[in-house]
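Dear Dr. V.,

Thank you for agreeing to look over these. As mentioned in my earlier message, I'm a first-year student in the group and I'm still getting used to reading structure tokens, so any feedback on how I've presented them would be very welcome. I ran two proteins. I've put each sequence directly above its structure. The first is here:
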Amino acid sequence: MAKNNKTLYRLVIVLAVLIYFVTAWNSHGFYHADEHFQIVEFADAKLGKSPVSELPWEYAAGLRPTIQPTIALSVFKIADWVGFSDPYGQGTLLRFLTVILAFISILYFIKTVFQNGIIRNQILFVFCSLLLFCLPFLNVRFSSETWAGLLFLYPIAQMLRKDSESINPFLIGVFLGLSFLFRYQVGFMIFGFILWMVSIKKTELAILFKIGLSFLGIFLIGVLIDSWFYNEFTISAWNYFKVNLLDDVASTFGVEPWHYYLVETTKVFGTLLGIFLIAILGSFFLLFRKHLLTWVLIPFLLIHFFIPHKEYRFLFPIVNLIPLLVFLLVEKYISWYKIKNFHGIKPVLYGILSLAVGINLLFAFALSNESVGIGRTEMSFFIHSTYSNQSVNLVNTKWASPYKPWGALINHYSDTNVNNIEIENPALLNNELYQDGKLNFLILRDIDLQNNPDGKAALINHQAHIIKESFNPLTKTLGQIFGVFELQENLILYTFEKQDSTKIR
């Protein structure tokens, strides 16, 4: 790598480190409930910090892998031992741990790609592999999807090596096994991975045996961890398969049509970018039919297309493979049309590229400051850090509760100084909800006030004024321009006063 390129490489790495750690620091809470209730609350219960009776139904069914809750409880135990007991600080430690894993995994993947001459434009590939706008946000999450996807990068990198003798089959099996233990759906990626090795790579039986042996070893370790965690012999992988697939319990949480992920992609990324991403995937599968990524991704995607219960987060394990996929496809198109020789087009292409990089960094920065999970935990963190020494009376609408979303109490972040009251509509705000001698707050979503003149009138009557919002101004602006982010879910924290009865008509 040339000297100038090395300098740019280091600058990109430094920028990425900064953005990742800022994102991890700001991203209090969880993107989805399972990121918290199936991991953090499991860990707290095992440590005796919260009752097992309040855990989700999955605990009693023994269908969640417990390797990740075990990591969490280890972090919590060490933090408690050194006197670092703040629950939000402990959550930040878990995200920092994820950042470390992300950089180890992604940089190793990048190094392997470079050493084997797979990508020509190295600097841009490094930038996209680390700073594609959604990656810092997703790669700091202490979630099963993120950890499984990051761990899967090692086996992919190993099989991209041109020198077959340099691969380590035992480590491939270890990382395939770990990825599986964190997220069982990765099993469909493993199926495609092994099928490619057999049918395309023509891998020797001895190598496959070593991979299988080490995978089995990791799986058995997972069984031991599950059995210790659940206090009885447990094979959570079987329980997960039986309950969710054979018994189809997952469908009780919602059923979507087969094209859900296609439509949702245009919603998450905006129509134009969403269609572009879908087109990229389709083109890659057609043009690189024998490529490892094709064989890994197609089984994973097809199964998720046809499983009735769908959530967009289920696709997160594959996000770190997208930059390589895109670059391979783009470079193939460039070689076909020899754009590099069209000197008149180069300025236009560089202009478009510069604009894309700039917009990408804006989104990455916006996401680094965005409140994860529409800001529920961000609100409870704000109250915790600002008003911990005062009695707080918190009134909220049903879906705006920072302590009890979806009807489940978040024990890990609950504060004893906070009295939480739920109302159906902000129009129901009245003097009876006001408590003398306490700080009186109200939390609403933007959507709670839409087409709700009575709710708006109640805020005026009670002299409510805004203290904090979950979406920052940059996120709001980008959301309005590009049609992304669920801005109607923006959480707003108000103070409110007792209404003067003499002014009531």
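The second protein is here, in the same arrangement:
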Amino acid sequence: MLAKTRGFVITGLDGREVDVEVDTNLGLPGFEIVGLPDAAVKESKERVRSAIKNSGRKFPIHKITVNLAPAELKKEGAGLDLPIAVGIIAANGQLASADVKAAMIGELSLDGKIRGVNGILPILISAREKGVKEMIIPGENSEEGSFIDGITVRAADDLKSVCDYLEGKGDLKIVEKKEYAQVYQAAEYDSDLKYVKGQLVARRALEVAVSGNHNIILEGPPGAGKTMLAKCIPSIMPDMSFREALETTKIHSVAGKMKDTEGIVYRRPFMSPHHTASRVSIIGGGQSAKPGVVSLAHNGVLFLDEMPEYPRSVLESLRQPLEDRVITVTRVKANLEYPASFMLAGSMNPCPCGYYGSKDRECTCSPTQIKKYRERISGPLLDRMDIRINVDNVKYDELTDKTEAESSAEVRKRVNRTRALQRERFKDDGISSNAEMSEKHLNKYCVLSRECEEILKYAFESLKMSARARSRIIKVARTIADMDLSENIEPKHLLEAISYRGDGL
């Protein structure tokens, strides 16, 4: 007897529909799965066999052939366990119909329980786009499935309840739809700008960087507060829109990072990989071409503490996503594109000992050591850093000052206002921040006066800037003008932007 069910697998960040065809015939007992399954799918045979028996159903003593179509699509993961099991039960005549209309996904345990799987959100989005009316998902994934409308989502905890539902003997709980506003709440952070003593220039630079989503690098001696300042960035990031939250959640869902969440990522990511992390873990890839840290930082911040300590190959691989805001992972049988629109924040010492140029301590490094250390960050990568700030040691009187500085919450209010201006400006351009502007956008939104052009020309020639540096200065100036609620870029905005190029770096 032939039975059909439907499942889904993840390819990149998209769900792909899989038709599960099960045929049972008389003959020597056997169980074969065809259709380009990976090891996890092949191993489902034993999980499915035990789950069916332990759910009170008979496992057919026949020759069983399971075909996963389309055949050219590689099927990965254990999410097809449930549709395969239901297909076998239906093919054996234990369900009312051999053609199961509802799509389903879930991993089976030996006792018939349904375990959660990764990628539920992108799968539900894809299912809805393909016209699927009803989807059965694991109960563990019900929170993640509650933010997608236009499709009926039912949660199941075990195979028995699924079969009872399909026979009309029971019901499966419909996942209640949630609104983004129901779960979103302002996050509380351990790091707050109100605890930062002094560092007025660095505080201002951070606000400018976050207001326009500009890349920033902080240079200074050990203990000056570079890392502390960087860790304050999440606390002043703008609120996430529902669209941004869905984009971010899709990535984290596929990567299996959705545990202990409320079903959606509503706080901007702050990723800080260790300098010993591999290139694959940061960029993405591996055998299954999974998203890396740069994609997990999408719509958030990628912080590289002590940038020169990272392998050169890792740093150079950031150049492409910094420009294109996507990362392409190419493998023999896969060519996947992941979003990677993040704000890059980095910190570094001026030299190996950390005290080159310090007024307080003498540098012990030779000129050769300093040169080699600084060359670990290439010129092209450094050119992509919009803001470069020198962070000096704080004086003792500033450290002991009891006056509380402006809090992150107050700064975030201004950042939200500035980002709102940018979203309104770029509503028809497919971008949302000044840092994302192309030359086309610069010509349209960043028209410079004659005085500004003269200032920029002088800076360009005297500082020997590249064309990319010129564009990035204009973008930063546009952000500073937005912060001042100024329609046009004025000389003072341009001069401040130029000062952030950090000629010491």
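From my reading of the second output: The chain has three domains: 2-174, 193-427, 437-505. Residues 437-505 form one domain. Does that match how you would interpret it?

Kind regards,
E.
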